[in-house]
Amino acid sequence: MKTKELLYQNKKISYRISGSGKPVFLIHGFGEESDVWKHQEAHLQHSFQLIIPDLPGSGKSEMIDDMTMEGMAETIHAILHEEKIDICTMIGHSMGGYITLAFAEKYWNHLNAFGLFHSSAFADSEEKKGVRKKGIEFINQHGAFEFLKTATPNFFAPATKETNPELIEQQIATLHNFLAPHLVSYYEGMMARPDRTAVLQNAAVPVLFVMGKYDVAVPMEDGLKQCYLPEKSYIHILPNAGHMGMLEEPEESNRILENFLSDLS
Q: Are the C-beta atoms of residues 175 and 31 closer than 8 Å to each other?
């Protein structure tokens, strides 16, 4: 495993490269760092080259001027260019899926497949925007960590909260490095993103959908409404997961990803 740094528009973007083989990008979501993929990294690096960035404003990466989904997709493109990668697979969790869709819309020629892991091509509804605006008020009033500490348990399935509360505590313990402006910029970027169901409809490559049965952030119903759009879809439902399947059902998540990536070969 190598940790590398790219200077993008005079801002540091950090990413890890593990393993060797066909390149696969794993893009984390809101209020997460690249380590959220730790189980998948440990499993998949034996068969694939994994590129796992800290998104701007997360982990060791600095905020950039354009913190929209499109702006952050440009940082992923910069990593591709830096590593001289022409074709890759991209899997995005939650907000990482929104960034993956923005990337696929502009740089489709660099993708042989992509995946939405607890994510959606739909734009925010007015109701969702209202929830995010309240979140911004809370962040500005109480700070980033207090917000994440309050919000994170909601991303896990009821059974996880009951039988494995330590998992949630472990995840919360990783969230001390976020600053309020970072989280606010993510929320503003997510609220501004357009509907990208056309990216799915026009996809000339396979698309993976992974949904959590108990996901309240990106409900399973939303995933089921769009997974028929691509010409070729791989559809999986994690029966015991909320929004954090890679942590709640790591072995099943690993199996799904390995099978999808192996099929591309």
A: yes
Listed in sequence order, the residues at least 6 apart from 242 whose beta carbon sits closer than 8 Å to its beta carbon are 154, 155, 156, 157, 158, 160, 212, 214, 215, 216, 217, 248
118 neighbors 143 (Cβ within 8 angstroms): no
* Cβ contact 190:133 at 8 Å: no
CA–CA dist 58, 28 (Å, integer): 9
Task: Give residue-wise pLDDT tens across range 162-208.
Answer: 999 999 999 999 999 999 999 999 999 999 999 999 999 999 999 99
Q: What is the pLDDT of residues 121-156, one digit of tens each?
A: 999 999 999 999 999 999 999 999 999 999 999 999
Phi and psi at residue 57, in whole multiples of 5°? 85, 0
Secondary element (H or E) of residue 7:
strand 2-8
Q: Return the half-sphere exposure (C-beta side, CA atoms, 13 A cut-off) of residue 177.
A: 14
Token representation of residue 82:
């830096």
Rounded CA gap, 195 and 121, in Å? 6
Q: How far is CA 206 from CA 163, 227, 245, in A?
A: 36, 11, 21
